[in-house]
Automatic annotation (TrEMBL):
Keywords: DNA-binding, Transcription, Transcription regulation. This is IclR family transcriptional regulator. SMART domains: HTH_ICLR. One of its GO terms (molecular function) is DNA binding. SUPFAM superfamilies: GAF domain-like (SSF55781), Winged helix' DNA-binding domain (SSF46785). Residues 28-89 form the HTH iclR-type domain. Pfam families: HTH_IclR, IclR_C. It comes from Roseiarcus fermentans. The keyword DNA-binding applies. Residues 90-266 form the IclR-ED domain.
Length: 285
């Protein structure tokens, strides 16, 4: 399979590590240095000193100083009390201002807040980014105990309910590219079969996939072409005295995903209810 970017899939963007290894035809050194610093800080679990950044990038301290000064002045990075540098939320804010994402968030928030209140469950919305997913919305359950994902957090598309749902509703060429980019790992063939089953039933349903005791139910949010631009996922937690059943909450989540799709010009696929493992439906005569 080709290692080039995913064709005909605006929602799927190749991660940097998967980009072509051919030498670039045009280089802007100052831009390259700035991006190197941003990517380094984004991958670091702790703030880094000026010397630490220079050493890790293989550049001189004066070189790094000028780049850091510019990024700090523009608000992309900041310094802590010990003068170490860390990323601000500006990059995230820019991403959220991207028209497709901004429109999705604006159309979804009121519906998701109402859904969480009625089902007493938390919900998150993820988009596809190459062979990974990224969470762009998290709406917490009003219950005192719940499960949540970190907005901006990333995960493997194949190994997450949201990711498999997104892949199930991509054009075949884009799905094949994302699968090739994911590499080889155990149970890969079964996961691919699962993605095909998700496309048939209209959702993912998986038990104990993230954490023990959680049932992930994920529905696609589709654009006008019928391709998934996002996935709405409910990590269902059963209470001792449930206010609403899993089947009821899933039906309401499906309806909400459909309404969000319609607000973006899309139409939801036929959904086979009640929700259960897609592979069990696929195995039925």
């Amino acid at each position: 399979m080709s290692s080039e970017g995913p064709p005909n899939a605006a929602a799927a963007i190749a991660p940097d590590r998967l980009q072509s290894q051919e030498p670039p035809r045009y280089v802007a050194p100052a831009v390259e240095k700035g991006l190197d610093v941003l990517e380094l800080l984004a991958s670091s679990a702790v703030p880094l000193s000026q010397r630490g950044i220079a050493d890790r990038l293989g550049r001189s301290v004066p070189e790094v100083y000028r780049v850091l000064a510019s990024l700090e002045r523009r608000g992309y990075i900041a310094r802590g009390a010990d003068e170490s540098y860390f990323l601000t939320m500006k990059l995230h804010q820019l991403a959220m201002e991207h028209p497709p994402v901004k429109r999705l968030v604006e159309n979804a928030m009121a519906l998701l807040n109402r859904l969480a209140a009625e089902t007493i469950q938390g919900f998150h919305v993820c988009v596809l980014d190459g062979a990974e997913i990224q969470a762009i919305i998290q709406v917490d359950s009003p219950a005192p105990i719940g499960f949540r994902v970190r907005v901006g957090g990333r995960n493997s598309a194949l190994r997450s309910a949201s990711g498999r749902t997104l892949l199930a509703f991509q054009p075949p060429s884009a799905r094949q590219w994302a699968l090739a980019a994911s590499g080889e790992f155990p149970a890969r063939d079964r996961l691919i079969a699962r993605i095909e089953a998700i496309a048939k039933v209209g959702y993912e349903y998986v038990v104990d996939d993230t954490l023990k005791g959680i049932i992930d139910v994920s529905f696609p949010i589709l654009d006008y072409s019928g391709h998934a631009i996002a996935a709405l996922t409910m990590p269902f937690l059963a209470a001792q005295a449930p206010v609403i059943t899993l089947e009821e909450a899933a039906a309401m989540a499906s309806e909400t995903a459909s309404r969000i799709s319609e607000s973006l010009g899309g139409r939801q696929p036929q959904t086979i209810l009640p929700v259960r493992d897609p592979l069990s439906y696929a195995a039925s005569p």
